[in-house]
Amino acid sequence: MSTLRNKLQLIGNLGNNPEIITLDSGKKLAKFSIATNESYKNANGEKVTDTQWHNIVAWNKTADIIERYLQKGNEVAIEGKLTSRNYETKEGEKRYVTEIVCNELLMLGNK
Fold it and tell me: Where does the chain show beta strands of DSSP type E?
């Protein structure tokens, strides 16, 4: 059961082209967001689509694959874990970030 503690799976479409960062250490980081959609009928019987945006980060070989093959609009399946962090801006404001660290990636849809 310990493998289920912080594990999530999402299928969605990239909302932008991935941002690729190469650190001084040589490690590569890919950052992008995906949209997931859920549809339901409201009280009036009208179909409503709710879109949620998820921030994704991926490292090293996964980031290499993302850099080479993914672009805005591509459909992907992501498996990873949810992480939260905080930082302080130059103005002294505390900011909080929640993102998904991608462990596995599956490219879906047409080429």
Answer: 8-14, 19-22, 28-41, 47-59, 75-88, 94-108
